[in-house]
Amino acid sequence: MNTFECTCERCHLRTLFFNHISKNDIRSICTQKVEHRYEKGDVILCEGDPIKNFLYLKEGLVKLSRTTSDDKEQIISFAKPFDFVSLLSVFSSENYHYTVTAIEDSTTCELDLGQVKEIARENGVFTLDLMTRVSEATDRIILDNLEIKQKHLHGRVAYVLLFFAQNVYGRDDFELPISRKEIAEYIGMTTENVIRTLSEFKKDKIIRIFGKEIDIIDRERLESISLHG
Amino acid sequence: MNTFECTCERCHLRTLFFNHISKNDIRSICTQKVEHRYEKGDVILCEGDPIKNFLYLKEGLVKLSRTTSDDKEQIISFAKPFDFVSLLSVFSSENYHYTVTAIEDSTTCELDLGQVKEIARENGVFTLDLMTRVSEATDRIILDNLEIKQKHLHGRVAYVLLFFAQNVYGRDDFELPISRKEIAEYIGMTTENVIRTLSEFKKDKIIRIFGKEIDIIDRERLESISLHG
DNA sequence: CGCGGCTTTGATGTTCATCAAGTAAAGTGG
DNA sequence: CCACTTTACTTGATGAACATCAAAGCCGCG
C-alpha cells in the first residue's frame, strides 16, 4: 500500500507526522497537496490575506516581514526548510499578520488548513508534535529578537552575518541573500549604518566583501563582537 | 456528578477546556492540582529550572524575564490571568528559558505536565484549543516586541504606560507595579532616560506622577506619542 | 539609625539617524 | 543593444538621541 504515501523525497511531513498518523490520512493529505515554485523576490503570501492553507517551506529561504504602525517595513525573521512558514498566526488568527517573500528560489507545499485541523482534532499525538514544532519556531523568533534588541549596531550586524554563516549556509563564505536595506530592516538600524559597519569590519580584516559575497576571515573576533559589541 | 468538577470560582481551565474534555479528566486534574500564593516580588519559577508542571496564573500579575548573553536582566513580557504563564517553553524545551516573578500578589495553579500531555495525546480537540491559546500568547509577545523595537524612547515609554492603563488596569489612573529600572529593562533603555522621559511627560501635562501613582491626563497626546514619537 | 537600592537631575561624550551627493548595478522600453 | 530610469550601494558631514558618569535626595528595612 505504499503507493498511497507521499513520494516527495525530502518531504518534511514525514518527520513531522512520525508514525502518529494513519496511512489513510497521509494519503488524503498527499493527494490534495499543492506544490508551488517561487523565484527569488516573489511574494508567497501577503499581510492581511485570509489563512486558508497550512503552508510549509520545502526548499529555499524566505523572509517574514510586516508593516509597522508608522508604515515602515520590518523583517520579523528568516525561515529555511523545516521551519514552518505559516506558524505564527495559523492557529490564532483568521488573517496573516505578516508577508512572506522568497529571498532564494523556493518551493512550498500547501495543505488545506481545514483538513489539517480535522486530523489534529482526531489525533492528539499529531497535534502535540505540531505544537512542539510551532513552539520551537516562535521561541526562536522571540529569543533572536531579544538578543538583537540588547546589542549595539556592531553586535547586531555581526549577529546577522553569523546567523547566515552558521544557521543557513553552514560555511564562512556565502552570498548574502538580502540587501543592506533588508539587514537594516531586520536589526532596526539605518541602511547607511549597516554599510558603514560592514566597511569597518572589512577595514579591520574581519570579513571580505565583494558585493553580496561575504567571507568571514576572523570568526572569533566576529563572535566576540556579536556577544559584547 | 458535579462534585467532581473543579470548584475554583474563576478557574480558567473551564474556559480553556470548553466541553472538549471528559468529567473524568477534569476530576483527575482538579484533584491533584496545587494552588500557590505568591507575594509581590516572589520568584515563581527560575530560568534553567526543569519544566515539571503546567502552570497558569489564576490571579495577579507577573513578569517574564531572562538574562542576556552579556549578563543583563531583560524583561520579555508581562502576563495577567488568562495569559498562560508556562507557555513559552513548555512544549519545546526541557527547561525554562526565563524567570517568572510576581509583580503583584498572585495565585498560580499547577498541574502535572505529564498528565496534561496525556490528556492532550488522547484529545485532539483539547490540544487544538491549547495550541490556539499558546499561539495567541506568543504572537502578542512577538508583535509587542516588534512595535517597541521600532519606536524611540518617548514612544516606548508612552507605549508601556498605555499598556498598563488599557490592558492591565482598564483605567487612566493606576499604581505602576514595576520600578523605573524594570521599565528600562523592558523597553531596552537606561533607567535615567526612562525617568527623564516621565518627567518631561509630567512637565508637558500629559501625565501626573506621585511616586508609583500614574494618572494619564492627556490620553490623546500620549497615544499620538506612542504611535509616532 | 544607617545601609542599600530606587529615584532624580545635570554634565559630558558616544552612538546613531539624517541629510547630501555621488557611484555602481540592475531593470526597462525603444 | 543602448539610452534611460530606478534601485542599491557607499562615504562624509552634521546634529539629535541616547548612554554614561557623577552627585544628591528619598525611602524602606533590618
UniProtKB/TrEMBL annotation, chains A, B:
Residues 17-119 form the Cyclic nucleotide-binding domain. Keywords: DNA-binding, Transcription, Transcription regulation. GO terms for cellular component: cytosol. It comes from the Bacteria. GO terms for molecular function: DNA binding; DNA-binding transcription factor activity. SMART domains: cNMP, HTH_CRP. InterPro entries: cNMP-bd_dom (IPR000595), cNMP-bd_dom_sf (IPR018490), Env_Response_Regulators (IPR050397), HTH_CRP (IPR012318), RmlC-like_jellyroll (IPR014710), WH-like_DNA-bd_sf (IPR036388), WH_DNA-bd_sf (IPR036390). Transmembrane segments: none annotated. CDD domains: CAP_ED (cd00038), HTH_CRP (cd00092). Residues 151-220 form the HTH crp-type domain. PANTHER family: CRP FAMILY TRANSCRIPTIONAL REGULATORY PROTEIN (PTHR24567), LISTERIOLYSIN REGULATORY PROTEIN (PTHR24567:SF28). This is Transcriptional regulator. It comes from Prolixibacter bellariivorans.
